[in-house]
């Protein structure tokens, strides 16, 4: 912005000078009386000084348009056939540039991947597990390989097998204490009777051992009688305890026994107070005791995760999967156990003692999957002696993905 200062002896003379020099755009800001002329401060006269600025040309305000008029103009601009054709040509050209440019258009999902996703979903694998499996298919298989669905299926079955982590057989010498914990209704007492039978008889891949049973389940109606009946049939001594001191005493009494199995009280994973009390009581078994969590195969995925988390303070080393015969969908179990990095030690698939129990076997679980074609060339027994490559990756914390 331009400013000015002009002086004259009279008010009218100053205004005349300003109008002549700066025109109508001159705007007066201040005015004051001054002394003008003279020599060395003498013979001066009173005058007037004015200061101001030159105003800029005003920017014309746009005329407010009527929305109806604007809409009419737009419709008229695209009404002609020529204008519409130009728009279509521009869209077509843009699409061709995108297809030919450095950024490829995202390809549609291959039908083999869609089919695998559907099979995994029907078997109730978790969303996280399915997403990881699909991502691995995209990374490791070519388009030509994806065309061979049998190959794709075999790959996925092999990867599922890798995620089924089995409890390594350590071959521990000397007395061993195994504790079975878990929520109510999963069949702990029947399961521990089966474990006692296969170890005492030396069946189902187990060596024959001297076995003793201890139960702290003295509150459930008929629980004590049930375990004692099993003990009588198998010829396995059974002791019932109610306190930390009694349990500690019985463990010491059986110190020369090959295997001591401890049956516990079924607790809801939300029963925090009684879970804490039971954990304190079981500490009487010593730090070398193995704790196994009994988990029913019929448990839904969300509940599986809650149960695994709530029993974590017991420090369980592995899971015994029960009631496999009562469900047709176990993807939720495989997914949840892998995501929590839990190993399987035993599987039960019926009520018969001791027949319906076996050491955890990957192929047994794979054969329960619905919709997958397990070819004879794929069905093979993996050697489970020692720690396999899969368990080594698990123990070292490495991912299979």
UniProtKB/TrEMBL annotation:
<keyword id="KW-0813">Transport</keyword>
<keyword id="KW-1003">Cell membrane</keyword>
<feature type="domain" description="SRP54-type proteins GTP-binding">
    <location>
        <begin position="175"/>
        <end position="371"/>
    </location>
</feature>
<dbReference type="InterPro" id="IPR020006">
    <property type="entry name" value="FlhF"/>
</dbReference>
<keyword id="KW-1005">Bacterial flagellum biogenesis</keyword>
<dbReference type="GO" id="GO:0005886">
    <property type="term" value="C:plasma membrane"/>
</dbReference>
<keyword id="KW-0547">Nucleotide-binding</keyword>
<keyword id="KW-0282">Flagellum</keyword>
<keyword id="KW-0653">Protein transport</keyword>
<comment type="function">
    <text>Necessary for flagellar biosynthesis. May be involved in translocation of the flagellum.</text>
</comment>
<keyword id="KW-0342">GTP-binding</keyword>
<dbReference type="InterPro" id="IPR000897">
    <property type="entry name" value="SRP54_GTPase_dom"/>
</dbReference>
<dbReference type="GO" id="GO:0015031">
    <property type="term" value="P:protein transport"/>
</dbReference>
<dbReference type="GO" id="GO:0003924">
    <property type="term" value="F:GTPase activity"/>
</dbReference>
<keyword id="KW-0969">Cilium</keyword>
<protein>
    <recommendedName>
        <fullName>Flagellar biosynthesis protein FlhF</fullName>
    </recommendedName>
</protein>
<dbReference type="GO" id="GO:0006614">
    <property type="term" value="P:SRP-dependent cotranslational protein targeting to membrane"/>
</dbReference>
<dbReference type="InterPro" id="IPR003593">
    <property type="entry name" value="AAA+_ATPase"/>
</dbReference>
<keyword id="KW-0966">Cell projection</keyword>
<keyword id="KW-0472">Membrane</keyword>
<dbReference type="GO" id="GO:0005047">
    <property type="term" value="F:signal recognition particle binding"/>
</dbReference>
<dbReference type="GO" id="GO:0044781">
    <property type="term" value="P:bacterial-type flagellum organization"/>
</dbReference>
<dbReference type="GO" id="GO:0005525">
    <property type="term" value="F:GTP binding"/>
</dbReference>
<dbReference type="InterPro" id="IPR027417">
    <property type="entry name" value="P-loop_NTPase"/>
</dbReference>
<comment type="similarity">
    <text>Belongs to the GTP-binding SRP family.</text>
</comment>
<keyword id="KW-1006">Bacterial flagellum protein export</keyword>
<dbReference type="Pfam" id="PF00448">
    <property type="entry name" value="SRP54"/>
</dbReference>
<dbReference type="InterPro" id="IPR047040">
    <property type="entry name" value="FlhF__GTPase_dom"/>
</dbReference>
<feature type="domain" description="AAA+ ATPase">
    <location>
        <begin position="174"/>
        <end position="370"/>
    </location>
</feature>
């Amino acid at each position: 912005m331009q400013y000015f200062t002009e002086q004259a002896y009279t008010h009218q003379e100053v205004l005349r000078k300003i109008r002549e020099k700066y025109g109508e755009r001159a705007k007066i800001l201040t005015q004051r009386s001054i002394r003008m002329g003279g020599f060395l401060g003498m013979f001066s006269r009173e005058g007037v000084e004015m200061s101001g600025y030159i105003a800029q040309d005003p920017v014309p305000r746009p005329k407010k348009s009527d929305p109806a008029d604007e809409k009419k103009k737009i419709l008229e601009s695209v009404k002609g056939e020529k204008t519409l054709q130009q728009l279509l040509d521009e869209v077509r050209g843009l699409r061709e540039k995108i297809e030919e440019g450095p950024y490829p258009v995202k390809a549609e999902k291959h039908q083999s991947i869609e089919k695998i996703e559907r099979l995994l979903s029907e078997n109730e694998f978790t969303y996280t597990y399915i997403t990881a499996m699909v991502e691995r298919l995209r990374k490791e298989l070519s388009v030509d390989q994806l065309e061979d669905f049998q190959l794709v299926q075999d790959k996925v079955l092999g990867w599922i097998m890798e995620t089924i982590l089995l409890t390594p057989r350590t071959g521990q010498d000397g007395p061993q204490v195994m504790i079975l914990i878990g929520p109510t209704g999963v069949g702990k007492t029947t399961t521990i009777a089966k474990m006692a039978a296969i170890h005492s008889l030396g069946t189902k891949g187990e060596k024959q051992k001297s076995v003793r049973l201890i139960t702290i389940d003295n509150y459930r109606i008929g629980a004590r009688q049930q375990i004692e009946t099993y003990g009588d049939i198998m010829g396995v001594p059974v002791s019932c305890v109610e306190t930390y001191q009694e349990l500690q005493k019985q463990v010491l009494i059986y110190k020369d026994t090959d295997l001591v199995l401890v049956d516990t009280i079924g607790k809801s994973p939300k029963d925090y107070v009684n879970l804490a009390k039971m954990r304190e009581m079981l500490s009487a078994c010593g730090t070398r005791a193995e704790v196994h969590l009994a988990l029913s195969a019929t448990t839904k995925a969300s509940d599986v995760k809650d149960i695994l988390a709530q029993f974590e303070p017991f420090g369980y080393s592995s899971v015994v999967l029960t009631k496999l015969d009562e469900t047709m969908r176990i993807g939720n179990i495989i997914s949840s156990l892998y995501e929590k990095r839990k190993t399987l030690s035993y599987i039960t698939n019926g009520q018969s003692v001791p027949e319906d129990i076996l050491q955890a076997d990957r192929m047994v679980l794979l054969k329960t999957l619905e919709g997958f074609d397990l070819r004879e060339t794929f069905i093979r027994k993996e050697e489970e002696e020692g720690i396999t490559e899969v368990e080594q990756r698990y123990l070292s914390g490495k991912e299979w993905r």
